[in-house]
From TrEMBL:
Its EC number is 5.3.1.28. Belongs to the SIS family. GmhA subfamily. It is found in: Cytoplasm. Pfam families: SIS_2. GO terms for cellular component: cytoplasm. Substrate binds at N55, G56, G57, E68, N97, D98, S123, T124, S125, S128, Q178. One of its GO terms (biological process) is carbohydrate metabolic process. InterPro entries: GmhA/DiaA, Phosphoheptose_Isoase, SIS_dom, SIS_dom_sf, SIS_GmhA/DiaA_subfam. It is an enzyme of class 5 (isomerase). It comes from Salinisphaera hydrothermalis (strain C41B8). One of its GO terms (molecular function) is D-sedoheptulose 7-phosphate isomerase activity. Coiled coil: none annotated. PROSITE patterns: SIS. This is Phosphoheptose isomerase.
Length: 200
């Protein structure tokens, strides 16, 4: 562990870097974030569902997002349909073992995805093969995609079509991008819950 002064400087630097990423990302996603929230609410209100995927920290984000739709974020309201594709261990291990890790999300999309559903695809690099393959599977099955990316958007940004929405964190650092992705997810949840409250 660094000495006290050094540790304190690291903490100061990380908070400063996060603030900088926060402000740059706000400017980058301010216009498209409400559209993403509206897309998700419309999806659920029409009887469709959200699917969410990502690796590592982004797997945590996918679960976090699904939990906040199914259960609640800050308000009590009707349940919204969302499934995390990162949590079924028997399914994940079987697909990875039999077909390869690149197929762990796409195979589940083939099984569960229906036209009108929306895939939340999360990757800080934009290059994770299983997320790239998931987007292809989503397009093949008539799902639109909301992509949480960073850096230059990677391969994911090139895959997206005009019906998809990319929310790109303005940073080149994985940890900062993840921090921004969680903030984006919370903004989406807040916008959705405010829209439902205004309807009721
Ligand atoms: O949380 C972290 C790093 O902060 C890691 O677990 C990270 O999520 C993993 O290395 C992922 O495999 C990275 O995947 P991706 O964001 O490039 O799609
Ligand atoms: Zn992390």
């Amino acid at each position: 562990m660094p000495n006290d002064a050094f540790a304190s400087q690291i903490v100061t630097d990380l908070f400063a870097a996060s603030r900088q990423a926060n402000e740059a990302t706000r400017a980058a996603v301010a216009d498209s974030l409400p559209s993403a929230a509206a897309r998700i609410l419309a999806c659920c209100e029409r009887g469709h569902k959200m699917l969410a995927c990502g690796n590592g920290g982004s797997a945590g984000d996918a679960q976090h997002f699904a939990s906040e739709l199914v259960n609640r974020f800050e308000r009590n309201r009707r349940a919204l349909a969302a499934i995390s594709l990162v949590t079924e261990s028997s399914t994940l291990t079987a697909i990875a073992n039999d077909a390869g890790y690149d197929r762990v999300f796409s195979r589940q999309i083939e099984a569960l995805g229906q036209t009108g559903d929306v895939l939340l695809a999360i990757s800080t690099s934009g290059h994770s093969p299983n997320v790239v393959t998931a987007i292809d599977a989503a397009h093949e099955r008539g799902l639109s995609v909301i992509a949480l990316t960073g850096r230059d958007g990677g391969r994911m940004a090139e895959q997206l079509n005009g019906d998809d929405i990319e929310l790109r964190a303005a940073s080149d650092v994985t940890a900062r991008i993840q921090e921004m992705h969680l903030l984006i997810i919370h903004c989406i949840c807040r916008l959705i819950e405010d829209a439902i409250a205004a309807e009721d």
